[in-house]
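Write out this protein's structure.
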Amino acid sequence: MPRDLFIYNTLTREKEKFQPLVPGHVGLYVCGPTVYGDPHLGHARPGVVYDLFVRLLKDLGYKVRYVRNITDVGHLENDSDSGEDKINRKARLEELEPMEVVQYYTIRYHQAMAALNTLPPSIEPRASGHITEQIAMIQQILDAGMAYEINGSVYFDVKKYNLEHCYGILSRRVLEDLQTNTRDLEGQEDKRFPFDFALWKKAAPEHIMHWPSPWSEGFPGWHLECSVMSSKYLGQVFDIHGGGMDLMFPHHECELAQNTVTRGKNSVRYWMHNNLITINGQKMGKSLGNFITLEELFSGKHPLLTQPFHPMTVRFFILQAHYRGPLDFSDDALAAAGKGLKRLLLGQSVLNKIPVSESATISETLQQIEDNIYQALCDDLNTPVALASLFDLVTWIHTTADANKTIALQDRKLIERIYDRVVNGILGLKQESEGDQLPLIRGLIDMILEFRKQARQSKNWKESDRIRDQLSGLGVRIKDTKTGTDWEI
């Protein structure tokens, strides 16, 4: 039956019935990672949340264009308009080309997302591939009188914009209050106002990544790329913009302002924001130094972990909480998630052992469970309630099996449909099979490469080459760098 989908719109602070711009089609834009380091648990939550959303939309019959960007230029340290580009800094420290850093960590990110069983986006554009379009949008904003150029850099004029519109409407911040509670920031003397944000930055002599523009040899500001790429691939107005709650201000607030100036409207019909993963109540992130990489989670190599955790356990851990609610990390919570996942998936194995009867009766209980699951998922992706109904189903299966009862064929088909469409399909959960031992594979390859490292240190080049060639024959590509040895399957 047709099901209504309701989404919490951050802009209106209300749960709204989803009505796409074009019936049957959905345009979704999600802010992807800045690729300057290994993906961590904080990256996993938006990856899983918006993958769940795409899967649900497709199950409901929508055709989805899912765009997720890669930030490879313009994102400065501490998310500010001054300082060094994060990728530029990584490249300088490791004596690599910036795009070498980008490629390596993009691959690592893709590997981690694949391990979590997330579907790849329809389009995955990079900021560096859209410099021309970003320059054109800056000129539009200048022509509209909402930006100014000074010393080769271009800044968005927040005060002037606020006179005609409302800067802070998305994050519910009042510019006057922000101004009262802030101080002028060092290194931002060019700005007329502390909350003006960079559209274009003149590159310092030591800056590696820079492009020619009408204003200077420089690079675009971080907030600009999403406005440009969303309009290019989804149109001037599109359905949904997603991202982490930490991006609401200033990133999405600045993006909304840019859209309003260049398009005459907000252009995003529904804003979605997932909450963060915390450790002891503190945001997890590279800048705070308290993050756990997904590689560490999958291998168990972190002081806070007592064991490796399978990617499906991590995915289930994320799905246990509502996407807008808090999710605090702990080793115990992950262990409990692993047990819950096993119980859920075991239900399907137990079902296969229950004999089928000739009865044509369809259980009202099972039909209600299926309806409850979809009702929860369509109610702003309420996965905790959906999982609770799934465990009601598991209990029904075990009760039937323990009582040595039979099951009607139609009931069996209904349960199989739930596992196929909901558990494996929408939730993206699958068996932690013996053939899916990613942590074990990574550990074994790392151990073999340690032997190769010892051979190279003792100048036993023949043994080193033999190990490399044998791994290559198994589909493991090895690359020796100045900082060590990288590999990929």
